[in-house]
Amino acid sequence: MWNRLFKRAPREVMDLPVFQELDRSRLPAHTAIIMDGNGRWAKGQGLLRTAGHAAGADTLKKILKAAIALELPALTIYAFSTENWKRPPVEVDYIMRLFFNRLMQEIDEMDEDNVKIRFIGRINELSPALQELTQKAEDQMKDNTGVQFNVAINYGAQDEILRATKKLMQRVQQGELSPEDVNENSFDDCLDTAGVPPVDFLIRTGGDMRVSNFLLWQSAYAELWFTDTNWPDFTPELFVEALKDFGKRERRFGGLENK
Ligand code: IPE
Ligand code: IPE
Ligand code: MG
pTM for this one? Predict the structure, then answer.
């Protein structure tokens, strides 16, 4: 039912009235999403928090399909933070199983959609089975040229920055890099997102206005967009609405107004 429904999603996005109002020449090169509010959505429906995560995975599929239809160059989603281990083990176990099952189900369709997946964060701390599957997914899609889809699991930006710093220090120690060559570019190359442009647009659902340790380096000049809508209720229509807003923002990067 799921797959039958969503093989058609790209066309559905293009049929949305809001899509016609979108200036496609002003789309972000890199969009990042903090998918928050699964638990609160579930509570509102009288369901367990875990049901919120399952509904959230359904939303993610719709939004990825929209990104494919819109030909967004890069999309990074926050799926599990280094701080989320503080949650009850039953919830953490459920989320990890959900990643495994959904990824397993979706690999081939993402591949058919020309998606190129990458997992960012401390992937080596996930279960061996999940690590194997993430590797398989990356390998299978490595030559694809469509949406660069980064999934942050066991990800924390401070942790990523520290790991990048250690990598840089090692390169300097081994004489591959001189200390003078430590700059924004060589630092970028050591991040999990190496090769992906900086985040232009950061969306957070669920009503909180904070970045919760997500892509701190990469979002230095990101435009921020918040909505009270909980992630399971987020829609391709709202996504296009957000992108439309992005197109109207005047970005100065510390310079003067663009004339
Ligand atoms: C986001 O939703 C998903 C994860 C952090 C894994 P939450 O689970 O944080 O939902 P709320 O914020 O408690 O509603
Ligand atoms: C951010 O949501 C992490 C993810 C969406 C994976 P949280 O629910 O963990 O953030 P806080 O705790 O409200 O800052
Ligand atoms: Mg939350």
Answer: 0.95
